[in-house]
Amino acid sequence: MDRAQCDTIHHASLEILRRTGIRVHHEEALALLRDAGCPVTDGNRVRIPPGLAEWALKQAPSEIALCERGTGKATVALRAGETSFGPGSDCPNYLDPRTGERRPFTLADLKACVRLVDALPELSFLMSMGIPRDFTGHTYRRQYATLIENSVKPIVFVCDDGADCRAIAEAAAVVAGGMDNLRLNPTLLLYSEPTTPLQQSRTATEKLLYMAEQGLPVVHSPAPMMGSSAPVTIAGGLALGNAEVLSSLVIQQRKRPGAPFLYGSGLHHLDMKTSISVYGAPEFQLARLAVACMGRYYRLPTWGYAGHSDGILFDEQAAADAVYSVQTAMLGGTNLVHDVGYLEAGLITSPEMMVFTADMIGMMRHFARGFSIDEESLALDVIHAVGPGGNFLGEDHTLNHFREFWQPTLFDRQRFDGWQSSGSKNLGARLRERTLAIMDSHPGSPLPDKLAREVEKVLGL
Q1: What global pTM score does this model have?
Q2: pLDDT (tens digit, 9 = 90+) per residue, 411-448?
Q3: How far apart are CA 209 and CA 256, in angstroms?
Q4: Is the dihedral of CA 205, 303, 81, 120 positive or negative?
Q5: DSSP assignment string, 255-323
Q6: Does the domain at residues 64-368+448-459 carry the CATH identifier 3.20.20.480?
Q7: In the chain, what are the domain boundaries?
């Protein structure tokens, strides 16, 4: 999308907010909007003047840093030119790499998956990955406790309501050394959603306002379904979702100007043949690029998707979807990219899909970096020294640079005899072995026992 096309979407979204408006099911948010000059009719239908949306866009920071637990080191930089990947949240099912069985997700699976992500350097942050079906009580608090107790990586968390959100933020503050330290060195980011079309629910707005009050980062990303809850065209779905994002930003910035906000919209389409939300489609990837373009247009860090598939198993379909989506996210410049490991359009978490996608992220990083053209890389003196008919294998220049080429951990580059002598294993077999080896050997990054007890106390577990 060029600047003129972004302008068109922006002005269309402003027209939606001005003319159609949104339903806001939260009294404090209504008051904040009313006090800013927004007309409120029919109880809670709010029209937002274009100038207020423009004001909110000027308040939000253009960069967000997410930090490692314990050190305060910024390990995820949400800014232009940086792309970080991580898993998704809340799948009800698990594809067990030991048995190949699709079964309900458990708390033990969650802990194993957290350790796996902790071990994979190409995955930079955590999400909850699955809903433990063998746990009753504060599910989202238990998820968060499991994440922070087993990895140092930043956490994008989900939660049920304002009480959950407050408890999780307070637990993070305990580990960070207080809320002020957490605000300066955020180890967490809230993922929440408005309700398409054009509604801000009470619980989602409650969470949004709490995070704004604390100055903690949030992505408040709608999920317009083209052909169902949104117009069937990408342009129409993009304009609607963008209006919902802008309304969220206005509410957040009215609560606390300058609060960190990640721009995202989960624009999907409904497959009329199957009535499912599609992940593996060119239209889905076009929508991802369009959302990234709008985020850059607003100079806001962006939220995206990759490493996912509609497939039920980790197979050729899932592998193709993973590679396509990772390349799209990286070349499109999306900053924080989730859903690595999703199968069945977000109903299954697959550890093998995570390990495979992590390898593909490494490959695509090499591709996206391009190559140098300078005196050292042109190697004219080396070419002159070797001359016609020579070879470069023994040159210092070769020794100094050959490690710059990407080396796979899963792909096999042997010829037939070597492959056969190594067991004639296909990619699936090698992937399963590598996944289980990591899960069996990596202990995670345990939180000290004293802090873990304090976290669980704050969370009421």
Answers
A1: 0.96
A2: 999 999 999 999 999 999 999 999 999 999 999 999 99
A3: 9
A4: positive
A5: HSTT--EEB----EEEETTTTEE-SSSHHHHHHHHHHHHHHHHTT--BEEE-SB-S-SSSSHHHHHHHH
A6: yes
A7: 64-368+448-459, 375-404
